[in-house]
Design brief:
This protein has 207 residues and is an all-beta fold. Helix content is 0%, strand content 37%.
Length: 207
């Protein structure tokens, strides 16, 4: 699975321009790489690869990596190095790796525009007989204090901040199928945006 997050540096739709992006090479080689070159819409580039994190031994773990757009120097990612998937942060050179979540099954991190918070999907009680569900959480990265934004309403995943930091869009199965929902950053004013078919992994456009 390839997972990447672009760091914009220019206009759309003429040419995608950015300084770096990080992505997974494969599910068997769980490594991050930096590509410090501009890339066109056809994704042609001359690349310099650098391994940022050691490979995980656990196969099949869902990996996601996302840049802190505010600082440009932090990456949040998912790793199964201790067993179940957990969320970590590190500097852009691979140093100062910090574990953010401490239990359960945590995936899909996304930085707030001000670089202070992470939102992610977290099943805090995970395992046989556990009643937990995937809910959206918000965490202050510096203090590790978290707030639960959704409450046991189906599977909630892939949260993504709006550019102004006021809203979070996410995927939820609460209506019986995967649809796109939105809410304020404090978890209030929840609204369903799509109603038919299956709709997943939402993202915001950035100017």
């Amino acid at each position: 699975m390839y997972s990447f997050d672009l760091k914009p540096h220019g206009g759309f739709p003429a040419v995608w321009r950015y300084e770096f992006f990080a992505f997974m090479v494969s599910r068997w080689q769980d490594r991050f790489f930096l590509y410090p070159k501009r890339v066109s819409q056809h994704l042609r580039c001359r690349c310099i690869r650098r391994k940022l994190s050691p490979p995980d031994q656990r196969q099949g773990t869902r990996h996601c990596s996302t840049w802190n757009r505010k600082t440009g120097s932090q990456i949040a990612f998912v790793s199964g190095r201790t067993g179940l998937p957990q969320i970590y942060t590190m500097e852009s050179d691979g140093t100062n790796v910090q574990r953010v979540t401490d239990q359960g099954y945590a995936v899909s991190p996304n930085w707030s525009p001000n670089g202070q918070f992470l939102t992610f999907s977290w099943m805090r009680k995970y395992g046989p007989g556990e009643p937990g569900s995937n809910d959206i959480y918000l965490m202050d990265v510096a203090s590790k204090q978290w707030v639960q934004l959704t409450h046991d309403a189906g599977r909630n995943d892939f949260p993504c901040w709006s550019p102004d930091g006021r809203h979070i869009i996410f995927q939820s199965h609460r209506s019986g199928s995967d649809q796109i929902w939105t809410m304020l950053a404090d978890g209030t004013n929840v609204k369903q945006l799509t109603f038919k078919g299956g709709n997943t992994q939402p993202n915001w456009s950035w100017k």
